[in-house]
Amino acid sequence: MLELIAQNMAPIMFLSLIIFLLLGYPAAFALAANGLLFFVIGVELSGYSGGSINLDWPLLNALPQRFWGVLSNETLLAIPFFTFMGIVLEKSGMAEDLLDTIGQLFGPVRGGLAYAVIIVGALLAATTGVVAASVIAMGLISLPIMLRYGYDRKVATGVIAASGTLAQIIPPSLVLIVLADQLGRSVGDMYKGALIPGMVLTGIYLGYVMVMSIIKPGSMPALPKEARTLGSGVMSLIVALVFTGVIFYFAMGYFEKSGSSVNNSEILAAGVAVIVIYAVAVLDKFLKINVMSRLAQQVIIVLIPPLALIFLVLGTIFLGVATPTEGGAMGAVGALVLSAIKGRLSFPVVRDALAATTRLSAFVLFILLGARVFSLTFYGVNGQIWVEHLLTSLPGGQLGFLIVVSFLVFFLAFFLDFFELAFIIVPLLAPAAEKLGIDLIWFGVILGVNMQTSFMHPPFGFALFYLRSVAAKVPYIDKVTGIKMEPVKTSQIYWGAIPFVFIQVAMIAIVIAFPGMVMHYKGKPIDPSKVEMKLPTMPGLGGLGGLPGLPGPSGSSGGSGAGGLPPLPVPGSN
């Protein structure tokens, strides 16, 4: 019996961890306690294992070094920076301005508010990277407006929860940072790989809203004319965009003539064009010249600052100017500047942002430390070999592995937070994926899209609980219309989320079927047949490769020697 337990220590240890977590113990302490408990058992049973357990008491001396490896990990510094940036932006009222402006822009269209929520969700994801901040902000601001103008409760709550979870997959997502760290890959490459899938998922959300607006037009009516406070003026916005394109064209020509490289000229020209149109809009508004419509002014003034912040963070990372940690630091400073410009930067805002950042960072750190204790024991009982053999023996090769892992992560996401999945499950899956020849950035993006479902599917979806916390629980009087509104039921939030869960599952299949969506991070492939190697020639010099012939033994030119070198003496000759 002892031999059987000792030789199957790895699966017993893994199942025990799952039981601890299902019983409700905090993940960090469940990991650490499980690791220490089985370390003691493993040391005592090592003699019965037939060499499959490699644990001894002195191995515990490695724990301080493993902890220091976590504490000195510079990549993980990006997490507090991006968290702080997101919370400051949420407090600055940027989400409110974006939702109001884009809602007015799409107001005349059926489903316009739903389009606005999804677009703002994508913009907030690219600036905050924090799901809670996005869902709570949009739930507080847009849900009452959507209900006021007759939106179906299931549609409204589903759109808000789903668009908030875009912060999981659109850079600078926190989970992408953790996945890159656990997979041993560059955060910048992970961001590049996830960018297109995130944009495609946003497009699918918009497509779903468009289809629903056709099938069930009554579920998402257009804004009534009296609610469009910015009036019309789309043509003015189109003219402003054309004007921006013209400035970009001439600026790019100027920078190219001045000797800048092509890439730099495009970036510089885009910067000049954006600054010019922003300055024109600001002057037009405050000097009351009224060249632009109010709608065009508001769209330009509201949209450009967050887009500039996105470029400051992601653009510098993609261009190789800054590391993700440095990009996060610049983003945090940029968020403070934007908040100050809006007049909403105060000590309570900074204090609350620092407190929330500290809580999340401590949560991540403790899970990581617990995972280090668990992995020390798990690797000591050859658990990684057991997992690798289990996964690499699946039928279907790479595709079979990816399908089974996707089902596994989707199921575990019902019970585990995405941080717990990243720290517990991913280190066990990565070696098997690498052995099967799967690109780990592609694998990480698949896992990131999959973990997004952990926020959406009932009964434990965090995005659903965030929305539940800010949605009306009792009847209330609408501030604008004075009409008594019914509360939002929890069942309506759950039913609204289900279509988007299916969309996210479909997105997992799309990323698996079309790896090129992610693989572009490697850049354009090099064609070996077009690679030419030329050695520099030196005119007037003879010999191989332009080297002069060296004199032979008789003083003549050593042209008969290879490459102009003198012939080697034959043994036995004079």
From TrEMBL:
Mention any Pfam family matching this sequence.
DctM
- Compositional bias (Gly residues): 555-564
Query: What membrane topology was assigned to this protein in its record?
Result: Multi-pass membrane protein
TM helices/strands, residue ranges: 12-30, 67-89, 113-143, 155-179, 194-215, 236-255, 267-287, 299-322, 328-350, 362-381, 401-429, 493-514
* UniProt keyword Ion transport present: no
* This protein's UniProt keywords: Cell inner membrane, Cell membrane, Membrane, Transmembrane, Transmembrane helix, Transport
Q: Where in the cell is it found?
A: Cell inner membrane
Q: Does the keyword Cell inner membrane apply?
A: yes
Classify the main location: membrane
Q: Out of the domains of life, which is the source?
A: Bacteria
Query: From which organism does this entry originate?
Result: Thioclava arctica
Q: Where is the TRAP C4-dicarboxylate transport system permease DctM subunit domain?
A: 14-288
Positions of the region Disordered?
A: 544-574
This molecule's function is given as: Part of the tripartite ATP-independent periplasmic (TRAP) transport system.
Q: What is this protein called?
A: TRAP transporter large permease subunit
